[in-house]
């Protein structure tokens, strides 16, 4: 964790299925863009999300999220939780309003999802619910739904994060850059150079997209076996959706299914997952035949 001014909270990146140890988080905690764990994904809600909430106890200041989940109803009367579906809010930053931040009160730690949507949510929280630049909420929504145009700043950040997805140091530097009003020219150049790396990944994604095989209503590519260089899974899935309503990519023992945000397809219900993003899910590769059978049934 890089040093932050004392007045700013620590920012910890996480995923729904890999939440940090609540006991190691400092002070009062706000959680943004972290979905409730879905039982159907192999990480039971009770053992992950519910346990994390229980361990935080009174230190949980707020939880803001926009992923569908059947257990949202359990927290409807708890004012700390601001929860919606993906259809209601295409991205999470637009839910981080000045009112939500003000009602939560001071926080010492922000736990955010490790994608652009989570990073922008954390930045907006630090700024008191105000966008780091005009149109930032729109950029986050366009990136998370893949509908509409992404502005120049959002496009650079999106490419940089996709090309260096596991680089937490870069994420924290992007946060500093956005919080400071993008005044640091050296940081801006570093982020632009990181974004340029995406173009090389795009070439491999385009090559893999030509190898999709038709599987009924879906197209499928075994990227894990066929990739010759780093690729961008999101781009590969989007290219697949140009060929069929559903794109399926196998990689690292998992398959990812994706459909257009406005397709009406709901993988959560189709595969009985319990929660997550209706139009993009990752499940164990052993369920490929089941997924195809249900999709084409």
Quick summary:
With 297 residues, this protein is an alpha/beta fold. The chain has eleven helices and twelve strands.
Pick out its properties.
297 residues, alpha/beta, 2 domains, 5-stranded parallel beta sheet, 5-stranded mixed beta sheet, 37% helix, 18% strand, globular, disordered N terminus
Description:
The chain contains eleven helices and twelve strands. The strands form three sheets. It has a five-stranded parallel beta sheet with strand order 1-6-2-3-5, with helices on one face. The N terminus is likely disordered. It has two domains: 174 residues; 90 residues, Diaminopimelate Epimerase, Chain A, domain 1, CATH 3.10.310. The termini are far apart. It is globular, with a radius of gyration of 19 Å. The chain is α/β, with parallel strands linked by helices and 297 residues long. Helices cover 37% and strands 18% of the residues.
Mean pLDDT: 94
Rough outline: globular
Share of residues in strands: 15-25%
Helix content: 25-40%
- Runs in which pLDDT lies below 50 for 5 or more consecutive residues are 1-5
Biggest sheet, strands in spatial order?
1-6-2-3-5
User: Mind telling me the C-alpha Rg?
Assistant: 19 Å
Structural class: alpha/beta
Terminal CA distance? 48 Å
> Count the helices. How many?
11
How can the largest sheet be summarized? 5 strands, parallel
- Please indicate the count of domains: 2
Number of strands: 12
Order of helices and strands: EEHEEEHEHHHHHEEHHEEHEEH
Secondary structure elements and pairings:
Elements: E1 10-14, E2 29-32, H1 49-56, E3 60-65, E4 68-69, E5 81-83, H2 98-104, E6 109-113, H3 116-126, H4 136-145, H5 152-163, H6 168-179, H7 185-209, E7 213-215, E8 218-222, H8 223-226, H9 233-241, E9 246-251, E10 254-259, H10 267-270, E11 275-276, E12 280-284, H11 288-296
Parallel strand pairs: 1-6, 2-3, 2-6, 3-5, 8-9
Antiparallel strand pairs: 4-11, 7-8, 9-10, 10-12
Helix pairs in contact: 3-6, 4-5, 5-7, 7-9
